[in-house]
Write a structure and sequence with these properties.
Layout: H1 8-15, H2 22-29, E1 32-40, E2 51-52, E3 60-61, E4 64-65, E5 70-77, E6 82-88, H3 95-105, E7 112-118, H4 140-161, E8 165-175, E9 182-184, E10 194-202, E11 207-214, E12 227-228, H5 231-242, E13 247-252, E14 259-261, H6 269-291, E15 295-297, E16 302-312, H7 316-320, H8 322-326, E17 331-332, H9 343-352, E18 363-373, E19 376-380, E20 384-385, H10 387-391, E21 432-435, E22 444-445, H11 478-489
Helix pairs in contact: 3-4, 5-6
Amino acid sequence: MSPRALPAALFCLLFAVPSVPASAVGARAAGFTAAAGKVDITPDLAREHVLLAGYGAKGRRAAGVRDPLYARAAALSDGERTVVLLSLDSLGLFREDVLELRRRLGLEDGRRFLFVTATHDHSAPDLLGLWGPLPGVRARANDRYRERVLALCEGLVRGLLARLEPVELVAARSELDPRGLCGDLRDPAVLDPELGVLRLRAKDGRALATVVRWSCHAEALGRDNLRVTADYPGALCGRVEALGGGTCVFLPGAMGGLLSPDVDRRGGLEKAYAESDRVGESVAAAALAALKRGETAASGRVDFSTRTLLLAVDNSRYLLFLPALARGHRLFEADGRPLRRAPWRLALRHLLLFPLPERLRPRLESEVSLVRLGPVAILGLPGEPFPELVLGGYDGALAFGAPLIRPENPAPPALEKAPEGPYLRSRLPRHGWVVGLAGDELGYFVPDYDFRATPTRSMLPRPKGGHYEETNSLGRRASDAVLSAAGELLTPRAPARRGPM
């Protein structure tokens, strides 16, 4: 079911700006303008002794650079509103850094919006401040690197906004068989096969940008890799750019659950690098092929809306390391007022008098967003949604030859309790994308029916069947809260609201 076009009144309500005047409507009808570019954010290991993010609680000291990291961006305007899509070769950014970028750029006028995400690269320096020399201890070198990256991103976006030129859009979609490219490590087996592509093409035929949305973790290189690399998204974007696609901006889809590259690492790191390149180049080829069947639009609307929400911090580990989480987020009381207690006091109380009572558990501020770029609608979620929450697939239709439930699973999920549709994807148009890590990185959004966690400080031992994702999520209430807020964004005339979730 495709949603009706969001009325202009909704945007006026959400952003407190006047209704669009007739002159602005004329400007929109004049067509799209755009710009795109990238900036190198590879760490200088001679001066920046950074720690890599991902894989365990401690950071891994970067020992070399295999290929460069970039921040890539594409700006698109219809004459009235402008959206910038910014994607970094990184595990992710916290909300406060995203807000800081918007403040520096002055993008708080209701007419321009910065949509920030990351490739979720597990072989890039930690920008979240979570993978330090000890669990919960920030690495100062990473902090300095993070500030440099933010400054580079600011300069990149400023430059794009100053050189917009007329373009037309080409939107395409493809069903990419994930076998040999991406697999699901957690039951039920549900993979997201949808490949979304958007080309920004100048009037003289040049490709300014190619935006690619696909669902799979950027972890083709495992924990043994100590060299900086952009993983498969780097190979994907490099191939698109080498073949004349302009700047390639990669957007991660619904990759929780856990969607991981289907690669063979048995030949050591060099084989893993080759496998990473294979996955990226295969997806790039599919994206470029899809564009040959794309739909062209010379004019249309650029719009955006956001929903700020407060999410309960229930994860026992997150509560233990609440000060680290607080460095990247605004925290509130359960009733929505700013947090009165110092985060370290709550963490200490949780440690000594476990568990922290519900009345003392803070709420964390985050957002969901909806961007419309002509025929393309992008729904941004602030973490890693399980694909089944977005697509369904509990009947095995998206297992792609794998068993829906592995026979060896000692505690299979109770599929009879799985949520029924309609699911988010069905509420978006044909060229509708659900994008993860948008504006924040809150970890996994685990379906409530299959949320299983051990009620201890460390959340160990994990219940039978794995359930790793629960230990890296806000808690069992987060998924329903985020999905509810996203659903409200997709509902016409949804009232603006922020409150406890």
